[in-house]
Design a protein that fits this description.
alpha/beta; eight-stranded parallel beta barrel; two-stranded antiparallel sheet; 14 strands; about 35% helix; elongated
């Protein structure tokens, strides 16, 4: 009886004790947080953006970390995919015989029309820096210009004599000449003009004479920049028939009707006399068309293919690189050069850094050779650094 009374008493006492309150937390719910006063902690919460490692430091659980291959100049050099050397560069040289003076080109600061003597000095300078190739562009006096541009194959003309002088002074230099009628045309076009139209096949006849003339003078390569249909095959046949099987063709395969050529035309006084060049140069809106031109030129016997202009057409360089195994040249044209110069003169860009980056981008896109007015400057910068480490 006594034990029953004790049990009932204990039961009653237990019933009178208030239940313990649930454990409280200081963490506020999302609904009660004030975003203006609460600092976000990426390592906290059910959906934490960042974990912590064994040392308690912030840690993102990503196994592949590409930055490991960029952590030092030594590592970056070890895994670099593309390289830029002076030998990748071709120096364009403007030549004239209007006077015995080197004439600066206002729209291309740092560039000039050279006399034949100063041209030779430019070649020697480039060769000393490691630039091995040069392309010549003549400014022709107006009194020698005609619609049929017959001066273009005059063996005593400025270009054949310039080629011979370059090869005599620097036999190891690679000398390329421009094959087109516009410097010699009183119409300012790359071909013969009849009834307001640039005619294709008659123009090619003149181009063949021009190429053979330059080959006889000692040119290593001829560069048809005219964009006439079928001219590469005709030039190859003409050169071979005259025994110049070792003279190469650097074809301007994808030359666009571009606004970037203005300063170049100032240098040669070769602005179109009427209209534009859109009936033979490519539409800047078209990329697939460049593949057609490039594959045709390759089939006709071109040794290298060129894309012009350069930076705005890196995608075209890549497209051609993906379908053609021939070496590809890119022309870093006068307008591109002038824009960098203008920005540098204003102090808006680092000239050296932006030039070397630009040239490396050509290499990355697939270009083997880069025609650039910065050739000797870039060569000097490359030589000073021992390598291009961007």
């Amino acid at each position: 009886m006594r034990s029953l009374i004790v049990a009932l008493a204990l039961s009653s006492a237990t019933a009178l004790v208030a239940p313990s309150a649930p454990r409280t937390t200081t963490k506020l719910s999302a609904a009660t947080k004030d975003p203006a006063t609460t600092a976000y902690q990426p390592t906290e919460g059910a959906n934490a953006a960042v974990d912590t490692n064994n040392k308690g430091d912030a840690w993102v659980s990503q196994m592949q970390r590409p930055r490991r291959n960029r952590k030092s100049a030594g590592v970056r050099s070890m895994v670099r995919e593309n390289f830029l050397t002076p030998a990748n560069l071709m120096q364009p040289i403007f030549i004239h015989e209007d006077s015995n003076e080197v004439v600066p080109i206002p729209s291309m600061p740092g560039q000039s029309r050279h006399t034949l003597d100063s041209m030779v000095e430019q070649v020697k300078k480039g060769m000393a820096l490691g630039v091995k190739s040069f392309i010549l562009f003549p400014k022709v006096p107006d009194d020698l210009k005609t619609n049929f541009a017959d001066e273009c194959y005059n063996p005593e003309g400025i270009v054949p004599r310039a080629v011979a002088m370059c090869k005599a002074a620097c036999p190891e230099a690679t000398i390329c000449t421009d094959i087109a009628l516009d410097p010699y045309s009183d119409q300012g076009h790359d071909g013969i003009v009849l009834d307001g139209k640039i005619v294709n096949d008659m123009t090619i006849e003149q181009l063949c004479k021009q190429a053979v003339c330059h080959a006889r003078a000692g040119a290593d390569f001829v560069g048809p920049s005219d964009m006439m249909d079928g001219r590469v095959g005709a030039l190859r046949m003409a050169l071979d028939a005259e025994g110049h099987t070792d003279v190469g063709i650097i074809s301007y395969s994808a030359k666009y009707a571009s606004a970037f050529y203005g300063p170049f035309r100032d240098a040669l006084d070769s602005h179109p006399g009427f209209g534009d060049k859109k009936t033979y140069q490519q539409d800047p809106a078209n990329g697939r068309e460049a593949i057609i031109e490039a594959t045709l030129d390759a089939a006709e016997g071109a040794d290298m293919l060129m894309v012009k202009p350069g930076v705005p057409y890196l995608d075209v360089i890549r497209r051609i690189r993906d379908v053609v195994d021939l070496p590809i040249a890119a022309y870093h044209v006068s307008g591109e050069y002038a824009m960098i110069k203008a920005g540098a003169e204003k102090g808006w860009v680092d000239e050296k850094a932006i030039v070397l980056e630009t040239l490396m981008c050509f290499r990355r896109a697939g270009a083997d050779v880069i025609l650039t007015y910065y050739a000797t400057d870039a060569a000097q910068w490359i030589n000073d650094e021992g390598n291009v480490c961007l």
